[in-house]
Amino acid sequence: MWCVDDKRLMKIKDIQLIFHKELDKIYGLEEVKSFFFLLIKSYYEITRLALALDNNLSLTKSEQELIFSALQDLKKEKPIQYILGETEFFALPFKVNESVLIPRPETEELVSWVIEGVKSKIKNIDRPTHILDIGTGSGCIAISLAKNIPGAIVYALDVSQKALKIAKQNSEMNRVDIKYIHLDILNSDTWNQDFKDLKFDIIVSNPPYVRKKEMQQMKANVVQNEPHLALFVEDDNPLLFYKTITEFSVKYLNEKGKLYFEINEYFGEEMIQLLEHYNFNTIESKQDVFDKDRCIKAAK
Predict the structure, then answer these.
(1) What pLDDT is attached to residue 127?
(2) pTM for the full model?
(3) Superfamily for the 90-299 domain
């Protein structure tokens, strides 16, 4: 453990050494280095370059409290994004906390796929593109689409009021207008009430898809910190959300509308069969950077 003398300043370089001593065995040297520089930039507006140019940069006792609190959280494997309260997705800033999943790079691939599909046909569309994001969480998908598809009218829903609160803050921060809906998509009895007279050109979703038996394969920092409501499904019904959202899409997608999913890598073939069962066509899957089935799209 470290010892801080209340009567003196402490060099930031010395605090960095403490970080490595306490955390390298958990995360590795390079990741700890990344965490440290993120923290001093966020907390004190001190860049890596500034520290390299002045080894004597120091913090008072009161200033040290923030970074040593972060160190304690990191030792408990709390994600750095939750510690900072923010992250980046699709080159945009997002607030995050334990009520929403931390946006991931593979979801950026899903967003890119949607944008490419819209922009390839945008010259043939004489009205705004209507988009629905189901299970929006932090709003990262909906907001990124709204920022990158000119004139799009974007709706987003989630079952969690706490998640929607964060998503709304992210909309304001990124200056986009998203129409948010508090709804449990699994409760089909509410569909007609909340979506009366609404039709969409695109429905996109990154729903819960990790089976509970896969939990042991996941990193502790994910299982212990991120919301299980947004992550896990029962082992005996892994396609629950996909089946429900596909049924919803049959009713609320426009003719020739597109349905996009992020999927569990183990159920690529089953997803194709599910979409074919509901008479979707032009079904195409996409692998992530690790060559795992990760996204799928289909046309109505």
Answers:
(1) 82
(2) 0.91
(3) Vaccinia Virus protein VP39 (3.40.50.150)
